[in-house]
Amino acid sequence: MKPLYLGPMKLRKLGLGVVLICSTLLLTSCIEVKGAVSINSAARWNGEISYTLNKSLASAAGISSLDDLNRQATEQSASEVGFCKNTPFIEDATNYIFKCPLKDAISQTGDLTAVIVGRNIIFRYKQNLDSTSTESERIDLGSVSVLVTFIDPIISYKENKIGLVQKIDALTYRISGYATEPMDIEIVANCSSRCGIANTVPTPTPTKTFNPADAAAEATDAANASTDAANMAAESIDSETSSFFDSVDFAIQKAKTTGIKTELNTKKVLANNQEILAQVQSKQTNAENLTTKYLALSNDKTLPTEAQRLYLSTYNSWSRTLRTLTSYKNQISQRIQRISDSQTLVNKAAEEFVAGQSVKVKSTTAPKQITITCIKGKTSKKVTALKPVCPAGYKKK
Fold it and tell me: What global pTM score does this model have?
């Protein structure tokens, strides 16, 4: 598989194992590219672009640590991005994160560029443009969402695939798609007599105007994040719980053969599972509320048809999340019940063994023998047997 681009760095060769990791862990955003930037009449950038890489994906790509990632990014960044070349990745519990703040930045080479050509500013975004790549390399492992605002009128745009560019207003366009699909986007703004003048556009801030598309997208991301968090929380104690159940099974087998009541250490394992159950129940309650909310919005006839459609999609996302969380809750509840019952099962097995041994001893006790005295003249003999009989010539006394 050919290398995949991720902003200021190029990942090593990725295969099916990466896809399996993302699918198994329900990581719908193994790679995420987000940004909100403005470009002024001097083709200078303001705003911020961030890149997020899930650690499981990085590990599958051969990146073992934050230092390893920063080393590779430093080696490859020079030819792939025109700014933030010396900005390192940071990390949290599950992701590596690259945040690139932009203030009057210039980028005329690499994957993100803005240059003045005549009386126009030409903005370009390139991603994963390897002509030899195959469809298997373009699987959705994450998302791109970059908001680009110009101070000058936009006169045209080109995209290599319909739908990658969305018009927000006369000066603002959003670039969005999969984080691993090829993109070749060009947006042209006419700077006219202002070309080269560093008149700045204020750094983009979240709009106060309600946008159903943004609201629906954020709600869908939240639904996925809720599922991911519940899944990771459950996974964090799976190994400990599995080991505990192994010890329970062993103790039961031992009790069945020896009658020994092994004392199990259930308190910590039980407490951890109860803590995870509380987290999942909280997320499930939240999912129930949001499912109800977005179902009502999707049926609100006072909203535009497009908004209703987006809310219906969001409702479907939260419905899937609710089903997943309900399944998690049931599984963890069953696990807690088994943990709670474990000591009782061991004790019962031991008691059944002891009771069985008692019955066995009682049933195998030898019948009592009888002793008689036999005489023959002045000679006497004692005979002991279950059914004693005197020898020939002797009579029972």
Answer: 0.45
